[in-house]
Amino acid sequence: MANNRPSKALFSAGFLVYLFLYIPLAVVVIFSFNDSKLNAEWVGFTWKWYEKLIHNEDILRAAGNSLIIAVISAVIATVLGTLAGLAMHRGRQKWLPALVLGPIAMPDILIGVSLLLMFILLNVSLGAVSIILAHVSFCIGFVALAVQSRLAGMDQSLIEAARDLGASPWQSFRLISLPLLTPGIIAGAMMAFTLSIDDFVITFFTAGVGSSTLPLEIYSMVKIAVTPEVNAVSTLLMLVTLTLITLLSKISPTVLRQ
Predict the structure, then answer these.
(1) Of 52, 64, 184, 210, whose CB count within 10 A is highest?
(2) At what angle do helices 57-90 and 95-105 cross, to 10 degrees?
(3) What phi-psi label fits residue 210: left (phi over 0), alpha (psi between -120 and 50 degrees) or beta?
(4) Which 3 state secondary structure label does DSSP give 207?
(5) CA-to-CA distance for 75 and 17, rounded, in angstroms?
Protein backbone atom coordinates (compact mmCIF):
# COMPACT_ATOMS: atom_id res chain seq x y z
CA MET A 1 0.00 0.00 0.00
CA ALA A 2 1.42 3.35 -1.08
CA ASN A 3 2.31 5.84 1.62
CA ASN A 4 0.49 9.12 0.89
CA ARG A 5 2.05 10.99 3.81
CA PRO A 6 4.39 13.85 2.76
CA SER A 7 8.10 13.30 3.29
CA LYS A 8 9.92 15.09 6.08
CA ALA A 9 11.87 17.16 3.55
CA LEU A 10 8.66 18.34 1.85
CA PHE A 11 7.03 19.09 5.20
CA SER A 12 10.09 21.03 6.37
CA ALA A 13 10.23 23.03 3.14
CA GLY A 14 6.55 23.91 3.41
CA PHE A 15 6.95 24.86 7.05
CA LEU A 16 9.88 27.18 6.26
CA VAL A 17 7.95 28.85 3.44
CA TYR A 18 4.96 29.58 5.67
CA LEU A 19 7.31 30.70 8.42
CA PHE A 20 8.88 33.16 6.00
CA LEU A 21 5.43 34.47 5.05
CA TYR A 22 3.93 34.82 8.52
CA ILE A 23 6.85 35.95 10.68
CA PRO A 24 6.78 39.52 9.24
CA LEU A 25 3.02 39.69 9.91
CA ALA A 26 3.57 38.52 13.47
CA VAL A 27 6.27 41.17 13.97
CA VAL A 28 3.86 43.89 12.79
CA VAL A 29 1.20 42.70 15.25
CA ILE A 30 3.64 42.42 18.17
CA PHE A 31 5.23 45.83 17.65
CA SER A 32 1.82 47.49 17.36
CA PHE A 33 1.70 47.04 21.16
CA ASN A 34 5.24 48.31 21.72
CA ASP A 35 5.52 51.25 24.12
CA SER A 36 8.08 53.05 21.96
CA LYS A 37 8.01 55.25 18.85
CA LEU A 38 10.85 53.21 17.40
CA ASN A 39 10.58 49.63 16.19
CA ALA A 40 14.20 48.89 17.05
CA GLU A 41 13.53 47.09 20.32
CA TRP A 42 10.72 46.00 22.63
CA VAL A 43 10.14 48.40 25.52
CA GLY A 44 6.81 47.39 27.01
CA PHE A 45 3.15 46.63 26.36
CA THR A 46 0.70 49.45 25.61
CA TRP A 47 -2.65 50.15 23.96
CA LYS A 48 -1.90 53.82 23.27
CA TRP A 49 -1.25 53.42 19.54
CA TYR A 50 -4.75 51.99 19.07
CA GLU A 51 -6.15 54.83 21.18
CA LYS A 52 -4.38 57.32 18.90
CA LEU A 53 -6.00 55.73 15.86
CA ILE A 54 -9.45 56.53 17.27
CA HIS A 55 -8.55 60.24 17.32
CA ASN A 56 -6.66 60.28 14.01
CA GLU A 57 -9.04 62.05 11.60
CA ASP A 58 -7.01 61.17 8.49
CA ILE A 59 -7.06 57.45 9.31
CA LEU A 60 -10.77 57.49 10.16
CA ARG A 61 -11.60 59.37 6.96
CA ALA A 62 -9.53 56.96 4.86
CA ALA A 63 -11.10 53.95 6.60
CA GLY A 64 -14.58 55.34 5.96
CA ASN A 65 -13.75 55.89 2.28
CA SER A 66 -12.38 52.35 1.99
CA LEU A 67 -15.48 50.86 3.61
CA ILE A 68 -17.93 52.80 1.42
CA ILE A 69 -15.98 52.06 -1.76
CA ALA A 70 -15.62 48.36 -0.88
CA VAL A 71 -19.34 47.93 -0.11
CA ILE A 72 -20.52 49.68 -3.30
CA SER A 73 -17.92 47.92 -5.45
CA ALA A 74 -18.81 44.53 -3.97
CA VAL A 75 -22.55 45.03 -4.56
CA ILE A 76 -22.11 46.10 -8.20
CA ALA A 77 -19.46 43.44 -8.91
CA THR A 78 -21.67 40.75 -7.34
CA VAL A 79 -24.63 41.58 -9.57
CA LEU A 80 -22.57 41.82 -12.76
CA GLY A 81 -20.32 38.90 -11.81
CA THR A 82 -23.32 36.64 -11.13
CA LEU A 83 -24.79 37.47 -14.53
CA ALA A 84 -21.37 36.89 -16.13
CA GLY A 85 -21.03 33.53 -14.37
CA LEU A 86 -24.46 32.44 -15.62
CA ALA A 87 -23.59 33.58 -19.14
CA MET A 88 -20.28 31.69 -19.14
CA HIS A 89 -21.98 28.53 -17.88
CA ARG A 90 -24.88 28.58 -20.32
CA GLY A 91 -23.42 30.43 -23.29
CA ARG A 92 -21.26 29.11 -26.08
CA GLN A 93 -19.31 32.28 -26.81
CA LYS A 94 -15.63 31.36 -26.64
CA TRP A 95 -14.61 35.01 -26.18
CA LEU A 96 -16.76 35.56 -23.09
CA PRO A 97 -14.53 33.81 -20.51
CA ALA A 98 -11.47 35.69 -21.81
CA LEU A 99 -13.37 38.97 -21.58
CA VAL A 100 -14.65 38.35 -18.04
CA LEU A 101 -11.59 36.65 -16.56
CA GLY A 102 -8.96 38.73 -18.39
CA PRO A 103 -8.53 41.31 -15.58
CA ILE A 104 -7.69 38.49 -13.13
CA ALA A 105 -4.61 37.50 -15.14
CA MET A 106 -3.48 41.05 -15.98
CA PRO A 107 -0.91 42.80 -13.74
CA ASP A 108 -2.48 45.34 -11.40
CA ILE A 109 -0.19 48.10 -12.60
CA LEU A 110 -1.32 47.53 -16.20
CA ILE A 111 -4.98 47.73 -15.18
CA GLY A 112 -4.32 50.87 -13.14
CA VAL A 113 -2.48 52.68 -15.92
CA SER A 114 -5.02 51.70 -18.59
CA LEU A 115 -7.96 52.81 -16.44
CA LEU A 116 -6.21 56.10 -15.65
CA LEU A 117 -5.74 56.77 -19.37
CA MET A 118 -9.37 55.87 -20.07
CA PHE A 119 -10.66 58.21 -17.34
CA ILE A 120 -8.51 61.03 -18.72
CA LEU A 121 -9.74 60.45 -22.29
CA LEU A 122 -13.37 60.35 -21.11
CA ASN A 123 -12.82 63.43 -18.93
CA VAL A 124 -13.88 61.54 -15.79
CA SER A 125 -12.79 63.24 -12.58
CA LEU A 126 -10.58 61.08 -10.39
CA GLY A 127 -12.20 60.36 -7.05
CA ALA A 128 -14.47 57.89 -5.32
CA VAL A 129 -16.45 57.18 -8.51
CA SER A 130 -13.33 56.36 -10.54
CA ILE A 131 -12.06 54.09 -7.75
CA ILE A 132 -15.39 52.24 -7.60
CA LEU A 133 -15.43 51.74 -11.37
CA ALA A 134 -11.85 50.46 -11.24
CA HIS A 135 -12.55 48.04 -8.39
CA VAL A 136 -15.69 46.72 -10.07
CA SER A 137 -13.73 46.05 -13.26
CA PHE A 138 -11.31 43.61 -11.61
CA CYS A 139 -13.73 42.15 -9.01
CA ILE A 140 -16.29 40.94 -11.58
CA GLY A 141 -14.05 38.08 -12.69
CA PHE A 142 -13.62 36.72 -9.15
CA VAL A 143 -17.38 36.75 -8.54
CA ALA A 144 -17.99 35.10 -11.90
CA LEU A 145 -15.53 32.32 -11.02
CA ALA A 146 -17.29 31.72 -7.68
CA VAL A 147 -20.71 31.54 -9.35
CA GLN A 148 -19.47 29.38 -12.22
CA SER A 149 -17.85 26.88 -9.85
CA ARG A 150 -21.16 26.66 -7.96
CA LEU A 151 -23.06 26.12 -11.22
CA ALA A 152 -20.67 23.35 -12.24
CA GLY A 153 -21.60 21.36 -9.11
CA MET A 154 -25.34 21.95 -9.42
CA ASP A 155 -27.74 19.18 -10.41
CA GLN A 156 -29.28 20.42 -13.65
CA SER A 157 -32.00 17.77 -13.44
CA LEU A 158 -33.69 19.84 -10.71
CA ILE A 159 -34.16 22.73 -13.13
CA GLU A 160 -35.35 20.41 -15.87
CA ALA A 161 -37.86 18.83 -13.47
CA ALA A 162 -39.19 22.25 -12.54
CA ARG A 163 -39.61 23.17 -16.20
CA ASP A 164 -41.40 19.85 -16.87
CA LEU A 165 -43.83 20.65 -14.05
CA GLY A 166 -44.80 23.91 -15.71
CA ALA A 167 -42.45 26.43 -14.08
CA SER A 168 -41.42 29.38 -16.22
CA PRO A 169 -37.71 30.13 -16.77
CA TRP A 170 -37.93 32.95 -14.19
CA GLN A 171 -39.69 30.74 -11.64
CA SER A 172 -37.18 27.93 -12.05
CA PHE A 173 -34.33 30.39 -11.61
CA ARG A 174 -35.89 32.15 -8.60
CA LEU A 175 -37.06 29.01 -6.79
CA ILE A 176 -34.39 26.47 -7.79
CA SER A 177 -31.21 28.03 -9.18
CA LEU A 178 -30.93 31.13 -7.01
CA PRO A 179 -31.15 29.32 -3.62
CA LEU A 180 -28.53 26.83 -4.79
CA LEU A 181 -26.31 29.63 -6.08
CA THR A 182 -26.57 31.72 -2.90
CA PRO A 183 -23.42 30.30 -1.19
CA GLY A 184 -21.37 31.00 -4.32
CA ILE A 185 -22.83 34.50 -4.67
CA ILE A 186 -22.12 35.31 -1.02
CA ALA A 187 -18.58 33.94 -1.34
CA GLY A 188 -18.01 36.03 -4.46
CA ALA A 189 -19.36 39.15 -2.73
CA MET A 190 -17.06 38.65 0.25
CA MET A 191 -14.12 38.05 -2.05
CA ALA A 192 -14.91 41.25 -3.97
CA PHE A 193 -15.19 43.20 -0.70
CA THR A 194 -11.86 41.86 0.55
CA LEU A 195 -10.05 42.60 -2.72
CA SER A 196 -11.52 46.11 -2.86
CA ILE A 197 -10.74 47.14 0.71
CA ASP A 198 -7.13 45.84 0.42
CA ASP A 199 -6.32 47.16 -3.04
CA PHE A 200 -3.45 49.62 -3.37
CA VAL A 201 -1.93 49.56 -6.87
CA ILE A 202 -5.09 50.17 -8.93
CA THR A 203 -6.42 52.63 -6.35
CA PHE A 204 -3.12 54.55 -6.47
CA PHE A 205 -3.64 55.30 -10.18
CA THR A 206 -7.39 56.04 -10.05
CA ALA A 207 -7.71 58.02 -6.81
CA GLY A 208 -8.04 61.78 -6.83
CA VAL A 209 -7.49 64.51 -4.27
CA GLY A 210 -9.54 63.93 -1.12
CA SER A 211 -10.42 60.32 -1.96
CA SER A 212 -7.63 58.55 -0.09
CA THR A 213 -8.32 54.99 1.03
CA LEU A 214 -6.81 53.14 3.97
CA PRO A 215 -4.04 51.40 1.95
CA LEU A 216 -3.08 54.76 0.41
CA GLU A 217 -3.07 56.40 3.84
CA ILE A 218 -0.85 53.63 5.23
CA TYR A 219 1.53 54.11 2.29
CA SER A 220 1.77 57.86 2.96
CA MET A 221 2.54 57.14 6.63
CA VAL A 222 5.19 54.53 5.79
CA LYS A 223 7.04 57.00 3.54
CA ILE A 224 7.87 59.03 6.66
CA ALA A 225 8.56 56.20 9.11
CA VAL A 226 7.18 52.81 10.13
CA THR A 227 5.79 53.86 13.50
CA PRO A 228 3.81 51.68 15.94
CA GLU A 229 0.72 53.60 14.77
CA VAL A 230 1.31 52.21 11.27
CA ASN A 231 1.67 48.75 12.80
CA ALA A 232 -1.61 49.22 14.66
CA VAL A 233 -3.67 50.21 11.61
CA SER A 234 -2.00 47.44 9.58
CA THR A 235 -2.93 44.93 12.29
CA LEU A 236 -6.57 46.01 12.21
CA LEU A 237 -6.68 45.80 8.42
CA MET A 238 -5.04 42.37 8.59
CA LEU A 239 -7.63 41.24 11.16
CA VAL A 240 -10.52 42.35 8.94
CA THR A 241 -9.03 40.58 5.93
CA LEU A 242 -8.33 37.31 7.77
CA THR A 243 -11.84 37.35 9.29
CA LEU A 244 -13.43 37.74 5.85
CA ILE A 245 -11.25 35.00 4.36
CA THR A 246 -12.16 32.65 7.24
CA LEU A 247 -15.87 33.33 6.73
CA LEU A 248 -15.42 32.85 2.99
CA SER A 249 -13.80 29.45 3.50
CA LYS A 250 -16.67 28.41 5.80
CA ILE A 251 -19.42 29.51 3.42
CA SER A 252 -17.99 28.07 0.24
CA PRO A 253 -14.78 26.06 0.67
CA THR A 254 -14.93 24.81 -2.92
CA VAL A 255 -14.40 28.35 -4.22
CA LEU A 256 -10.96 28.55 -2.62
CA ARG A 257 -9.97 25.20 -4.13
CA GLN A 258 -10.77 26.18 -7.71
Answers:
(1) 184
(2) 160
(3) left
(4) coil
(5) 35
